Amino acid sequence: MIHPDIQDCQYTVEVLRTRAATPEIANQIFATAIPPRAIDKIPTGGGTISLFHAFISASRVHHRSMRTRIDGGKEVLVPRKKLVGRKERFIYDVLIAQRGRHTVLAVPFHGLAEEFFPRVDRVLAGTRTAYERLDITRIVLALGSSGRVTVSESDEGSLEIGLTRCHLAYSDVANRSRDIQSVRIAGTNLGTTKEYRFLIAPVIEGPRSGPHVVPLVLGFSLYAAGVRKASAITDRHGNFKVFVGPGLRQFSRLFDLLEAMELMEDVVSTTPNLPILQSRALASELTE
After folding, report:
1. How confident is the model at residue 287 (pLDDT cuts 50, 70, 90)?
2. What is d(CA 124, CA 266) in angstroms, rounded to the nearest whole number?
3. Within 13 Å and on the Cβ side, how many CA atoms surround 193?
4. For site-directed labelling of 200, which of 19, 72, 93, 158 has its Cα 20 to 30 A away?
5. 80 CB contacts (<8 Å, ≥6 apart)?
């Protein structure tokens, strides 16, 4: 089993979509990473996940403190250091996972993502790989004031998407008011609160005489028969944050969440533009 050095935290993620179900892109990214390297196969109901773990160097320090972990019976100080070229640098975890047409790339710090993801984008130039993004305004409309929607039904129970976090931007051009510029709200089930229903009403009902409201960041979960299976946070450009803990369950279940979102009409799209270059809202968003 793969055990990243840095875990129990949110990783910044990009979701790539290939023209065919192939691990070629994942292998290509993995080949550029620094050893030690590890590969694992995780069987799931939706197909086998190919999971890759290695390290990447950074030009600057992204962590605030060091910690120790046991690796091969020995105590290791992490983040690790490695001689890269002629300089000793800190190296950080990179996780790459592939199932079907989706390839997921994840690193533990947003600043590290801003440094590393453009390098990967250059490596993939010419492969016609696109980045997947979700239309978060359409998601809000689909979830309605209840903040929850059933996307499929089966003998094993319903599959639902529920909202857990929302960052809204407010503008009132008509009255030139800047009294409220943005609001963030988080909880296990936002749709049950009158506060969320009030804040989101201009999006669902359309602008009237009040301020114009635009969703910037959404957090949502996948529920199977009422049990939460996966969670993620995304902005409107295609940047994601996913919790990485022991066993990598939340991370590997991101595929199930993405496939469930595809069951919603006109929500999923792709872009050739690198999402991390437009990531201010997600960078400042509080982690779960």
Report:
1. very low
2. 27
3. 14
4. 158
5. 5, 55, 90, 91
- φ, ψ (nearest 5 deg) of residue 161: -115, 130
Q: What is the pTM of this model?
A: 0.91
pLDDT digits over 29-39, tens only? 999 999 999 99
Three-state SS letters, the chain: CCCCCCCCEEEEEEEEECCCCCCHHHHHHHHCCEEEEEEEEEEECCEEEEEEEEEEECCCCCCCCCEEEEECCEEEEECEEEEECCEEEEEEEEEEEEECCEEEEEECCHHHHHHHHHHHHHHCCCCCCEEEEECHHHHHHHHHHHCEEEEEEECCEEEEEEEEEEEEEEEECCCCECCCCEEEEECCCHHHCHHHHHHHHHHHHCCCCCCEEEEEEEEEEEEECCEEEEEEEEECCCEEEEEECHHHHHHHCHHHHHHHHCCCCCCEEEECCCHHHCCHHHHHCCCC
Q: What is the pLDDT of residues 56-71, one digit of tens each?
A: 999 899 999 999 988 8
Q: What is the pLDDT of residue 286?
A: 44
**Chain Cα centroid distance, residue 2:** 19
